[in-house]
Amino acid sequence: MPEARRALLRVAAALATRDAARVRAALESAHGVAEGNHVDEVLLQSHLFVGFPDALNALAVWREVSGSQAPAALGEDPRVWEARGEQVCETVYGGNYQKLRENVRGLHPEFDGWMVNGGYGRVLGRPGLDLRTRELCIAALLAVWNAPRQLHSHLRGSLNAGASVAEVDEAVEIACAEMSAGRADEVRALWAGIRDRAR
């Protein structure tokens, strides 16, 4: 895996710790290694998982560390988000896409639209970072965040988005460096079950 992608994975995993010093250290390590707009994208997408406050704080640190100005807004027409969201979500979930939509609608019908249009269309389908890298970063973040159900989906989603088993192995190990030994064992066991079925 290229060092630039490793740096992005370390940023994603650090975000999930909610530890300001670890986030700053990961961003400092990413500076000059990863492309600045790629770091921006990892930070932007993190709000779907860690929330706006942590994403905003991380963006502020990144502006300080990198010395970069905020990029221009894409100015996308929101009407493109639904179709793009459906396509991206289906890529990530593969054969489980329709079941996912039904399950989420069963929890709350509004959430289904927010997930597809907002999560996958507005955020994860954005240009600027390939879906494989996005999914690997999400998996690293969710592993540290301790969200096993969602982690399971995004480990599989990483493969569906084109990541190799070796790349997911590396993402898991980067995440495991940010957690206790016991939690790391749980994450590795979860991934091992998915990896064995993928071969």
TrEMBL record:
The keyword Ribonucleoprotein does not apply. One of its GO terms (molecular function) is 4-carboxymuconolactone decarboxylase activity. Its EC number is 4.1.1.44. Keywords: Lyase. It comes from Longimicrobium terrae. It comes from the Bacteria. Transmembrane segments: none annotated. This is 4-carboxymuconolactone decarboxylase. Residues 109-176 form the Carboxymuconolactone decarboxylase-like domain. The lineage of its organism: Bacteria, Pseudomonadati, Gemmatimonadota, Longimicrobiia, Longimicrobiales. Pfam families: CMD (PF02627). Gene3D superfamilies: AhpD-like (1.20.1290.10). It is an enzyme of class 4 (lyase).
